[in-house]
Amino acid sequence: MGDLTAIDILIDPEDSMKELARSVNQRMLKSIPPPTGFALDEHHQPHITTLQRYVHTDELSEVSEAVKGVIDSMDLSTVTFSTLNIQHLPVAEGVGEAAVVVKPAAGVIEFQHKLMDALGPYIGSGGGPDAYVRTDAEPDINDATLNYVDQYVPTHSGDNYIAHVTVGLARLDDLTLIEAKPVEPLTFGPSSVSVYQLGNGGTAAKHLKSWSV
Asked: What are the DSSP calls for 172-205, one per residue?
């Protein structure tokens, strides 16, 4: 089968969404400060995943060209999102990982489907830990991450796609108050589109390529 790389094709949002994400992140850090909590900084950039896949490592340059072809084929002014609310997933006892959930316009779904089609020839399956960025802090890749990427299509794509910007960790009692407060209403688009290699937990760990919009 050859070596595989786990990639995330993501949208870097416009500054208005980045500012909102960092503002919410500051509330998260008051609940769970580092090192358990994490700040949105150069290592945790606010972003919106559009597609995660295993691709053949020796075809990464072709993958980049395929992504660029999709970008060039679309009017990216149709790729917009609108803020909805803050939601979380439990990740540990009494702790949740929170995200600003956003509503994708029809152009976002079109963009995702075009990416899926364009990357078809380069897709692999059954990627293992070597497909990911591993660090001394996180030398292992958990099974949930391995399976998530393999099952991204169709489990998390198309009608099942939930667009979101991850904003940090907080205690569940704090999240109850944070989620009760309405989110600033924003409609925004991409400032760029990027490809990253994934790390444990689906983090965008290693930058591979970007295209400005």
From this structure: HHHHHHHHHSPPPP-EE-EEEEEEEEEBGGG-EE
Among 20, 38, 18, 15, CA closest to 28 = 38
CATH of the domain at 76: 3.90.1140.10
User: Residue 207 pairs with which residues in a beta bridge?
Assistant: 196
Cα separation, 38 vs 32, in Å, equals 8
pTM for this model (two decimals): 0.91
Amino acid type, 103 = K
Domain of residue 9: give its range. Answer: 4-212
Q: What's the total number of domains in the chain? A: 1
Q: Whole-angstrom Cα distance, residue 145 to residue 162?
A: 17
Owner of token pair 């540990």: 92
10-residue mean pLDDT series, the chain (213 residues): 88 96 95 90 86 97 98 96 96 94 98 98 95 85 92 96 96 95 96 94 90 93
